[in-house]
Amino acid sequence: MSFSLAASSRRLRPQRPSRPLTRRSDVELPFVTAPVAAGAELLLDTCVYIDVSQNHSPGAVDRLVETRIVNHSTICLAELTHLFGRLDPAHRETRRTLSTLGGVLARIPARRLTTPSERAFGEAGMLAGLCARLTGRRTDPSLLNDALIFLQAREQGRAVLTRNVADFDYFDQLAPGGDLLFYRMAPAPGARAMG
Predict the structure, then answer these.
(1) Does domain 30-182 sit in CATH 3.40.140.10?
(2) Residue 191 pLDDT more than 50?
C-alpha cells in the first residue's frame, strides 16, 4: 500500500491545534478573469462540467480550457454519474439533463481520465476532517471528494480549476503547495448585472 499513516500525519499534522479557518479575500486568490496563456495542465472540478454544459462559465474560463491541456478525475466521473441514479425519472427536465451529461461524459478522453492514488485517498480523509473541524462544517462526501481532487492535482502537478472558492482555499491554507484557479459563474443569459 502506498499510503503511510505516519508519513501522512507528519505531512498534514491533522491533530495540530489551530484557530478556526477563515476564507481569504478574493484579491489574495488566483481568479481567472482574463485570457490565461499557457501554464500547468488543468484538473477540472465537477462544477466546471456543469457550468460549461449550462453556458454559465465565463468566457475567460472557456478560453482557458481551450488553451491548456485538460485532465479529468474519476472523482468527478462518480459525482456526475451519481445524477443518473439520483434524478427523478418522472421530472420533466431529467431526460434532457441526463442527455446533456451523457454528452459531457462521452467527450472525456480515456487517456486524460485518472484516479487519485492510495496516498491521496488516505490524506484526503485527514484533510477533509481537519477542514471540517477548523471551519465548523459538517464532513460530507462532497468535502471529501473535493479534498481528493485537490490532492490528486497536486500529486500530478496540475492546477485545479473550480468555482468552489471556500473549500479549495481552506485546503490550500491547510496543505499549501497546490495550484488553484478560481472563477465565478457567469450571469444567466439575459440576466441584469446587480450593482
Answers:
(1) no
(2) no
